[in-house]
Design goal:
It is a single chain. This protein has 4 helices and no strands. The chain is mostly helical and 94 residues long.
């Protein structure tokens, strides 16, 4: 049985040193920033970068999008989460 979206998100959280969540929840800006750090993405904006920009950078880094310019900025879908989990070395097996 394949892992749920919630399980994959929590595996990514655990792999990036964040706390797993008991309830279904999208990534916070802090969690997106932790994913960027785990993928060695340089967040070059002053202060805290936007969630939109970080999602685009993550998609480009793990090969979901061909480039930053073509990367979608919406929340991640299950297949994208699985690619991100692979990128950060997370195990999403229950």
């Amino acid at each position: 049985m394949s892992p749920t979206v919630h399980e994959v998100r929590n595996a990514i959280r655990a792999a990036t040193g964040r706390f797993e969540r008991e309830f279904e929840a999208s990534f916070t800006k802090e969690e997106l920033q932790a994913i960027c750090e785990a993928l060695t993405i340089s967040v070059d904006e002053a202060g805290r970068p936007s969630a939109t920009r970080m999602r685009q950078q993550i998609r480009a880094q793990v090969g979901i999008a061909e480039s930053l310019e073509t990367a979608d900025d919406s929340t991640f879908r299950k297949a994208e989460l699985q690619a991100i989990a692979d990128g950060v070395g997370a195990s999403s097996e229950p």
